[in-house]
Amino acid sequence: MYTVPLPRIGTDIAWRDAAKRLIGAGVSPDKVLWDFDNEMGELFATGTTLPPLTRRIKAPQSFVEMANWVVWHKDPQRFARLYALLWRLRHQPGLMQDRADAELAKLRQMEKGVHRCKHKMKAFVRFRDLRQKGERRSFAAWFEPTHHTVEPTAPFFARRFADMDWMIATPDVTAQFVDGNLSFHPGQPKPDLPEDAAEALWGTYFCNIFNPARLKVSAMTSEMPKKYWKNLPEAQHIQGLIAGAEAKVQQMRDKAPTLPPERAAKIKRQLRGDQAED
Amino acid sequence: MARLDLSQKLAILSDAARYDASCASSGTTRRDSRDGKGLGSTEGSGICHAYAPDGRCISLLKILMTNFCIYDCAYCINRVSSNVQRARFSPDEVVQLTIEFYRRNYIEGLFLSSGIIQSPDKTMEDMLRIAKRLREVENFRGYIHLKTIPDAAPELIEQAGLYADRLSINVELPTDNSVKAYAPEKNPATIRKAMGDVKSRKDVAGERSYTGKRGKRFVPAGQSTQMIIGADGSTDATILGQSTQLYGEYKLKRVYYSAFSPIPDATAKLPLIRPPLVREHRLYQADWLLRFYGFGVDEITASRPDGNLDLEVDPKLAWALQNRAQFPVDVNRASKEMLLRIPGFGTRTVGRILSTRRHRRLRYDDLLRMGASLKKARAFIVAVDWSPGGLTDSAGLRARFAPPPEQLSLF
């Protein structure tokens, strides 16, 4: 029996390394326990060292890519499920193309979940200006991801916001980017971030880009589920916009057409004159 | 008139921009700022940073530079004859809003449009000044979409293409006659010429010179257009015919359909009814079928004699209901072309079916796992353990999908 400890930071590399050793030594899935971030405690600590890496292990590229996503899922069974599929792949090399296989379908579904979480993190992190002195500006955000997505998503923020320092704090893992260097730290409680005046402007934009004549709340919530709202500054306006929409449309309807402003006639005359000269 | 502060201007000029349907920020070149000398990145697929309660994605800061306008387009809130409150951003204000919103991860970039002030050239020059400052002074590497003014000088449009990821020129309405009737200052021929110019300029930029070097990047995310539906009497067949032509002739990335929306201070010329959102939705579905599913315009619009799409069921289902003789289709044997015509099967599902068929014979549950919508598809397919029997040709099949008839209400 092997118990494989997997750290919270660097989970992907640790899992892949262990999986390669275990597959290389022919250890079947029922002989492996995966222990994420010491969650099992001392009880299951067997202290067995993993077998050495003796040969190059081959796995389909599509499996490697899928595993790189699935390891970040919150399901405690993720590591065991991945290893079980890797075990089957030894004798069923075409398995990855079989979209009807139930085990693979489950993993694909988990992959999709992580994919979505990563996408939502890219979309919904909201930075606040820390207004610190210095050459580089500095920003910080609080975010609550569904899966362990901070580590795989942080490089996106590093590519995008390279000329500023930033921190994304989460209960799971905190990412920090200072002077061009990205680092990861244990998760933390929600920090006190300073108020940022830009949030009011962003709220103004959110309210005015909304078209009350096209109210479609379910389309909004399916893409921006309520669980994210508490960390989105613009979300505080949603209830009011929905409540006032019908009245606003009615107001437009009730208002009789107005006469054009005085300048309209003058501008029109000018425009016609210009065109005649052309 | 009291001076407007930034927040008031933003309110007026985003309100004025919300009738533009596009908020896409995808399909451009990959860029980042890892060198530490700039701000921003684009990585293929765009990101929707928020959703408004109208269900539409907010990806870009979509604003007008100004809503002063010398034109008098009947459907537009900013027409010269409207009494809407007017405002104008300074170039600096647009640049600062874009950069500060971007740094806080609110947006992917800027979609800048404008009313026509003084002249088309002057307006285009002012918009270019903003784009240029973003790119060259702020080193902004995020997404920029510029709404191009078709009457502006070709050199200006060409310059716009060097700063922008996407250009759009709106055809406004589905037919030339409607444009003439409702947008008297606009000329359909000029609009088409401007789109043609952008296309040929982009074609040239894609070619390599004799030294093998590529030309300067020119609108990497291509061009798009928008037409308003429901304001004039055009049928869906006319609209889809027009977009097919636009996709073909100008290699447009997208044609956006914008259901005419009641606007504040509307002109008496136009209907003040709630926009036909379902119609807009059906047009987008039909547009997809034309581009990715191998359907022709005639096939899609043949199901109803009036040339409009069926509002109760989606266009693919409508076609299948009309052409039941071609069903049921055996998912284990059918060609890709035929699989794509099955209601409830998307392009991805079809791809999965084709790859899985090499390994096993497909059963009903297998299809479920591949993401097919069997509620729709079941009447039209045969699998190892599934046959629809008489369902395919049953008289009540349409009623299973169409919503129950609405009770008339007293008014």
UniProtKB/TrEMBL annotation, chain A:
Occurrences of domain DUF4130 (ranges): 77-234
Disordered as annotated region, ranges: 253-278
InterPro entries: DNA_repair_put (IPR023875), DUF4130 (IPR025404)
Protein name (record): Putative DNA metabolism protein
Organism: Yoonia maricola
Lineage: Bacteria, Pseudomonadati, Pseudomonadota, Alphaproteobacteria, Rhodobacterales
Automatic annotation (TrEMBL), chain B:
Keywords: Iron, Iron-sulfur, Metal-binding, S-adenosyl-L-methionine
InterPro entries, sorted: Aldolase_TIM, DNA_rSAM_put, Elp3/MiaA/NifB-like_rSAM, Endo/Exo/Phosphatase_dom_1, rSAM, rSAM_sf, RuvA_2-like
Gene Ontology molecular function, alphabetical: catalytic activity; iron-sulfur cluster binding; metal ion binding
Domain Elp3/MiaA/NifB-like radical SAM core: 59-286
SMART domains (alphabetical): Elp3 (SM00729)
Pfam families attached to this UniProt entry: Radical_SAM (PF04055)
SUPFAM superfamilies, per database record: Radical SAM enzymes (SSF102114), RuvA domain 2-like (SSF47781)
Gene3D superfamilies to which the protein is assigned, alphabetical: Aldolase class I (3.20.20.70), Photosystem II 12 kDa extrinsic protein (1.10.150.320)
Name listed for the protein in its UniProt record: Putative DNA modification/repair radical SAM protein
Organism: Yoonia maricola
